[in-house]
């Protein structure tokens, strides 16, 4: 049987920090014990200078009593410092673990949200490596920092267990994600599906004629993209696959793939592409992508991609490069946010795999230079690189776009 690997989001960061706190406690206690022993050794070996050999025994006893009193005071002081340090470290551990990011005493907090957010004791007691005794459910701390996000989260979790999920706002999930509330908490309610009755067309007929027609209609389906180039920035799928070589691309990831047109074109060439999709204008694009027989996943570019390292032959991205930072956290359009996104993309591409930057709009010279500078740091091989102008809105106004096919190097 195969092995099973469990990786829990960013939980490892919590454990590493908590382990550091536990190590500090152990070192502090060890140093205190050593200090106490040194004081005791000093007290029992110290002999004060005597004016004569006829010193009375009463003065010796008095000096010994004084030494013991000093030792007791030092030991008591050390014990108080140890207790205070342990109290502070426990508080730091709680903050690092996320225990205090949500105020569970907040009035009108839904019972289901309270149940989900309440910390749970570890089944085997205190973890020896991390020092933790409780674990939290996986939910974004940003939800607890933003009052507006917490209000939305309250609506999202207000339901009766085993009944239908609330329908107060069909776009509430999208609003929470846009406020960096990822991952969202799980719910114990039944989803009301909006799909029409009837079976779907078999694959591959469903790629360009999804039936029964989803609520989005056919909005977003484009049969012309990547088949015929209008500008030099427009790369064709067949040309890219030819660059990759025979059997070079079997599985890919399209970041911000909209209606799934890129995945559909790849599916025609026996390449499976996972498409990250967010609803557009209130339209459930995930529903449309699924109706086409493709694989949608609801995730923003600002979230850690839930894939193992080095599994994709190809990653395709365009305008999603601008969404690398979460707008609610003030990170959008910052070079650091772009770096975090590109490093995560690099993580999931296999060695010699391809990164396809497809018609990225360089909205400013500074933004374009930031992207080029970061790409250079990865030392990818530039198989194709076109930085040029093209007309978008048929108004005669030319804008600068970057298209590139980059190959990940062997860093072994």
UniProtKB/TrEMBL annotation:
Keyword Metal-binding among record annotations: no
Keywords: Membrane, Methyltransferase, Transferase, Transmembrane, Transmembrane helix
GO biological process: methylation
Signal peptide range in chain numbering: none
Domain of life: Eukaryota
SUPFAM superfamilies reported in the protein's UniProt record: S-adenosyl-L-methionine-dependent methyltransferases (SSF53335)
Membrane-crossing residue ranges in chain numbering: 20-44
UniProt keyword annotation of Transmembrane present: yes
GO molecular function: methyltransferase activity
The protein's name: S-adenosyl-L-methionine-dependent methyltransferases superfamily protein
Lineage, highest ranks first: Eukaryota, Viridiplantae, Streptophyta, Embryophyta, Tracheophyta
């Amino acid at each position: 049987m195969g092995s099973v690997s469990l990786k829990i989001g960013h939980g490892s960061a919590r454990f590493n920090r908590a382990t550091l706190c536990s190590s500090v406690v152990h070192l502090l206690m060890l140093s205190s014990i050593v200090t106490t022993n040194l004081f005791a050794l000093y007290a029992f070996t110290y002999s004060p200078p005597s004016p004569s050999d006829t010193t009375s025994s009463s003065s010796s006893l008095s000096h010994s009593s004084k030494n013991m009193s000093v030792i007791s005071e030092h030991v008591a002081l050390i014990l108080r410092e140890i207790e205070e340090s342990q109290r502070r470290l426990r508080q730091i551990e709680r903050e690092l673990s996320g225990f205090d990011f949500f105020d569970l005493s907040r009035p009108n907090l839904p019972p289901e949200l309270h149940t989900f957010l309440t910390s749970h004791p570890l089944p085997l007691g205190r973890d020896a490596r991390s020092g933790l005794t409780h674990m939290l459910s996986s939910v974004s701390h940003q939800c607890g920092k933003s009052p507006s996000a917490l209000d939305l989260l309250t609506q999202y979790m207000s339901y009766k267990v085993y009944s239908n999920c609330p329908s107060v706002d069909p776009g509430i999930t999208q609003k929470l994600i846009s406020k960096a509330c990822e991952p969202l908490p799980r719910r114990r309610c039944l989803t009301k599906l909006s799909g029409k009755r009837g079976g779907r067309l078999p694959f591959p007929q469903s790629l360009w004629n999804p039936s029964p027609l989803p609520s989005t209609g056919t909005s977003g389906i484009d049969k012309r993209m990547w088949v015929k180039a209008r500008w030099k920035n427009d790369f064709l799928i067949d040309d890219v696959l030819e660059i990759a070589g025979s059997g070079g691309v079997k599985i890919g990831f399209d970041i911000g793939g909209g209606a799934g047109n890129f995945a559909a074109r790849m599916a025609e060439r026996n390449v499976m592409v996972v498409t990250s999709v967010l609803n557009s204008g209130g339209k459930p694009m995930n529903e449309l992508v699924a109706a086409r027989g493709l694989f949608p996943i609801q995730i923003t570019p600002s979230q850690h991609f839930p894939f193992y390292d080095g599994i994709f032959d190809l990653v395709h991205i365009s305008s999603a490069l601008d969404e690398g930072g979460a707008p609610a956290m003030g990170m959008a359009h910052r070079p650091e946010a772009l770096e975090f996104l590109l490093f995560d993309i690099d993580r999931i591409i296999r060695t010699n795999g391809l990164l396809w930057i497809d018609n990225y709009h360089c909205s400013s010279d500074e933004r374009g230079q930031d992207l080029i500078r970061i790409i250079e740091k990865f030392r990818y091989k530039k198989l194709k690189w076109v930085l040029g102008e093209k007309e978008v809105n048929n108004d005669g106004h030319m804008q600068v776009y970057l298209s590139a096919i980059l190959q990940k190097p062997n860093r072994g």
